[in-house]
Amino acid sequence: MIIEQMYTGCLAQGAYYIECDGVAAIIDPLREVQPYIDKASRNGASIKYILETHFHADFVSGHLDLAQKTGAAIVYGPEAAPQFNFYSAADGEELPLGKATITVIHTPGHTMESCCFLLKDETGKEIALFSGDTLFIGDVGRPDLAQKIRPELTPAVLAEHLYWSLRGKIMPLPDDVVVYPAHGAGSACGKNMCKETSDTLGHQKHTNYALRSNMTRDEFIREVMTGLVAPPAYFPFNVLMNMQGYESLDKVLGRGLRALSPSAFEIVANETTALILDTRDPASFAKGHIPNSINIGIDGSFAPWVGALIPDIKQEILVVAETGREQEVITRLARVGYDQAVGYLVGGYENWIRAGKEVEHVTSVTVAQLTVQAAQQTLSFIDVRKRSEYDSEHLPDALNMPLDNINEHMQQLNRNHTYYVHCAGGYRSMIFISILQARGFFNLINVEGGFKALKESGAFRITDFVKPVTQL
């Protein structure tokens, strides 16, 4: 028997390949399905099932393309009603996988159709639980996502369902069962996930706050609902794509991988509403970029920030990427449903420079330079980290303006005033500055190294409690 977790760090997402006696199942596949097909081919196995734990909100699953390419059955549990052919498995139904079996366990709570899949070996021994978003390592699935699709499913209603699902169906399983969740730390599908991506159920019973044996229903509902922040705006759109269907990734790539010369790129940018997305690292963007482009670096939390900051999932996008990484960018956009990439700048930004096209820059300062300036004048700082990060520690007079909420507060900035912008390390601050620069704010200076560098320098006073300062 083969169990392989195929983990994608930028989404904090775990897909799974399970194989027994030449028969394979894929659980919660990503949009690009060729790696699963290749793995089965190398092993001389055939993919029989595509098992979906629920309608995902944070990424577009690859179930449709994988089914089309392999003939495998798409399997959901009870209460799922997608708009394509699928197999509706009953609660407790056993799906044969070679000599092994996979038992479908309906666990409503994160969503009403949520299921876990329990793998048993040929003797019937429970081996592994693929828990989807029902049970994470250190946490459980948030109960506030389905309301966007079905208003009657309030967080309290779903939290109560989740309580009974965990107590009645998951916690009675043997302690040595290995839990393999759909997500790990960094995912917005939970609030307190650990960095580990698997664990025994027995250890989780002792360490996961939501699995306390003496926890009452009311305590569970209250604790699960406490501390939830608003989910990314793109989540409901991904749910609908997973329910209703979507274009083949092959077609999305064919459209996005349209090589545009600098002149052709400029024409498309000027004559359409396409957004120019520069995916190079922040330092390269600062040194020079195409006017009105925004920077979300491919080597950071790319897909989640795209989803959080580009409000229209159907937005046409022109891509600026490092040469050779164009397909990677377009694929990662498609992972979260941004399928309308319409071309990329052939030869990258360097080719734009060679063509003599107009460019803009972002001014950056080192902490050493900033220390000299701060001794000479009072500086205005904007801290674009999350509120929880700011509350933990911050510069005393820094204005907290989380990147997540940039559109809500930017009108309160004075375009003629100079602000020094920082995040934790420099990734988010460049995104922030690029968005505002594209909207006519040119007096924003990036602090290289972010708050980490400011703190380590010892030159700036740090407040480690919430101080009542003006908030934007």
TrEMBL record:
GO molecular function, one term: hydrolase activity
SMART domains xref list: Lactamase_B, RHOD
Keyword NADP: no
GO biological process: glutathione metabolic process; hydrogen sulfide metabolic process
Keyword RNA-binding appears in the UniProt entry: no
Keywords carried by this UniProt record: Hydrolase, Metal-binding
One Pfam family of this chain: Lactamase_B
Superkingdom: Bacteria
Residues of the Rhodanese domain: 270-361, 375-463
Name assigned to this protein: MBL fold metallo-hydrolase
Organism encoding this protein: Filimonas effusa
